[in-house]
Design brief:
The structure is a homodimer.
Chain A lengths: L5 H6 L4 H19 L5 H11 L7 H10 L6 H13 L3 E4 L4 E4 L10 E5 L5 E4 L2 H13 L3 E12 L1 H5 L4
Parallel strand pairs in A: 3-5
Antiparallel strand pairs in A: 1-2, 3-4
Helix pairs in contact in A: 3-5, 4-5
The complex binds zinc ion (4 copies).
The site of one zinc ion has 8 residues of chain A, from helix 7.
Chain B binds a DNA duplex (30 and 30 nucleotides) through helix 5.
Chain lengths: ~160, ~160
DNA sequence: GTTGACTTGTTATGCTGTAACACACAGAAC
DNA sequence: GTTCTGTGTGTTACAGCATAACAAGTCAAC
């Protein structure tokens, strides 16, 4: 589960090199434990997503892969992305038709997303309290929630401090 | 705001004829008050959405409109749908790339959606408690939520009673 | 070394959404 | 009543997102 300040850490300036390589290590370890293979395309795709905290469209990822000698047809990117999502290493953002690397693989695989409309960065927030509220409201109507999509658009602390309205 | 049992009412069998015409009346009244025009295409589009409690894709709506003598090109449907969404008479569902009529126009324009995976119907739930939880979690990270997308996939009471797993 | 599961690449196509332009029509200005 | 202006409706053409179906390479297991 993300710490209370995992959100702020995402948006604030930080040693992103270390941030990315930590996630990559965790990902490799995690996959090894599942017997899944982090092949070159898949690894490179994850690295590309990890270059920033933004979400990227599949075709944006594809352009990068193609430029580096991988296939240049859509399924190449979509398959790698689907693999990452399936194994909890990336998330899909419905609002953006885009993908973002998961920053704490192995924890909460259906987090709430906070998308800054100014810097475009995406943070993952603990979904449990939100899911609880949703489940409660739904239960009053006899509805059983199985999966929830929670994506918030707004302004991050860093952008707010810089005076973005 | 939806009543506690507005959710159940959506999924359970009911006098949908009356359900639809009530919404249509409210919509007309509401638009008149805003000086907006419920033209034939727009009205028909809303009626089509109101035929069921399901969400429809823009092209599905377009086919219907075209069959009834309206234009057969995508912008015809997208424009009518955009108008309805802008005026709070319909909602867009991100997960489904689809649109559904708003069942209580004028109340909570950013509800949480409950989508039944069995009967495909969509209900609107009170978003306030969920938004509060989300806002609180985000605030801990310094993030200010402006708009939130909350869409739950699950099973409605009616389908559950019918033994759908 | 052959089998079979998996991965990666391709071509082709389908679904979703928008930009730009032409015309019709209503109400205001004259 | 004519002209102007804004809004609405229709078109063509295109952009962006996603998948189906097939071919060929890899690699461990047998
Ligand atoms: Zn980082
Ligand atoms: Zn920001
Ligand atoms: Zn109804
Ligand atoms: Zn149902």
């Amino acid at each position: 589960m993300p710490h209370d300040d995992a959100i702020a850490a995402t948006f604030a300036p930080h040693d992103h090199q270390q941030c990315a390589s930590r996630v990559l290590d965790e990902a490799a370890t995690r996959l090894a434990g599942q017997g899944a293979r982090l092949t070159p395309v898949r690894r490179r795709t994850l690295e590309i997503l990890l270059e920033s905290h933004r979400a990227m469209g599949a075709y944006e990822v594809l352009d990068r892969l193609a430029a580096e000698g991988f296939g240049r047809q859509p399924p190449v990117a979509y398959r790698a992305l689907e693999f990452l999502v399936t194994h909890g290493l990336a998330h899909r953002l419905q609002r953006l038709n885009a993908f973002a690397a998961c920053l704490h693989p192995g924890h909460d695989h259906h987090p709430a997303f906070l998308i800054c409309r100014s810097c475009d960065k995406v943070a993952e927030a603990a979904a449990a309290p939100i899911r609880d509220a949703l489940t409660a409201v739904a239960a009053q109507g006899g509805f059983r929630v199985e999966r929830a999509t929670v994506e918030a658009l707004g302004l991050c602390a860093t952008c707010a401090e810089e005076g973005v309205a």
